[in-house]
Design goal:
globular; about 10% strand
Length: about 170
């Protein structure tokens, strides 16, 4: 069990609070920038669906709903809007006729690339104002944070979310 009273706990609490504050600033900055890009403008929730579907191409609807922390009807409405824009498509699951998987289209990937490029540009501007030694330390720390988040149970697919791998006997 992790001890939450040792001398490092205050540092961890402070670092977590600072990371949260940075995430909030980025949310505000990116929301302001969202309207500077070319249409279509999609909501933060729709963008979140695109991020997940891009990372887990062919994700089952059930898994997507769980990762979003949304109800099935809410997730379905988000996907309906993205599908109407041509950014995603629903396909039958290859291993179950009762399930549907979500795939990002070429247009969806292009839209994500534009969003990511605008965000990268804004971050490069901020990073450019930092001294080199701080940028190097930040890059190393962010790599570790990204790995820790990638490994976090809330962001991982469960075994039942992943279709079975065909064997030679199938």
């Amino acid at each position: 069990m992790t001890e939450h009273t040792g001398p490092g706990f205050g540092f961890l609490r402070s670092a977590a609070r600072r990371a949260g504050s940075i995430a909030e600033l980025l949310d505000v900055m990116w929301e302001q920038d969202r309207n500077d890009g070319r249409p279509p403008y999609i909501s933060v929730s729709q963008l979140r669906v695109l991020y997940i579907a891009d990372r887990e191409n062919g994700i089952r609807m059930r898994a997507l709903t769980r990762l979003l922390g949304a109800s099935p009807p809410s997730a379905s409405r988000l996907i309906d809007r993205l599908q109407a824009l041509g950014f995603v498509e629903r396909r039958p699951s290859p291993d179950s006729r009762r399930e549907v998987v979500l795939c990002v289209t070429h247009a969806g990937r292009e839209h994500l690339a534009r969003v990511r490029e605008r965000r990268d540009r804004l971050l490069r501007q901020a990073l450019d104002s930092m001294p080199g030694h701080q940028r190097a330390a930040l890059a190393e720390g962010l790599a570790g944070l990204q790995q820790a988040l990638t490994d976090h149970p809330m962001l991982r697919l469960l075994a039942e979310d992943v279709p079975p791998t065909p064997t030679l006997h199938d």
